[in-house]
Request: fold
Amino acid sequence: MATTTTATTTIDLTHPTQVVTDRQVDGLGHRAECGCGWASAWTDNPATAEAAAVDHREVEAGPGDGLDAVMSELLDLQDGLADMVVWLAENWSADLPVPIVYACAGGIGFDPARVKVSACCLHADELTRIAHLLGVPPVDDEQPNSRGTRYRNVRRDFGRVTLHAFHRLPETTGRAS
Reply:
């Protein structure tokens, strides 16, 4: 009997769960199991088993506290940062502008913390290349800023991490009022 075990929860010391796969159980093959001895019913869908695991943790462990929220927020940021690092390593080239990293603070009762990676393109063709790499169309500012300047922008979110590249458009007529 071949059994495959896949850990689906990396940090949850209260009720660590995993989805177990065994194709020889009436063709169903997936169920969630917890370290406390609980096990879900067998199902044909691993996502259903994972959902049962999440329900079990929420019922048994109860609602999270403030530290749980902080840990969750940090893990979300970590996931987005990892996705961004991999994307940059696979797609960015040395002849493109060097991006700058900004932290955007969040907090309890506020929007979640975010990170912005921003690249100022001195040449329009740099922005065109970045837009192609990101798979998003450039968007022009509708209104000039307080200095009368408009920009062409591309943005893509990697979870809570945003890559933003921009290029200054030719001068507009007059200053914004």
User: Anything to note?
Assistant: The two ends are 75 Å apart (CA to CA). The chain has two domains: 4-61, 67-168. The chain has a mean pLDDT of 82. The first helix runs from residue 46 to 61.
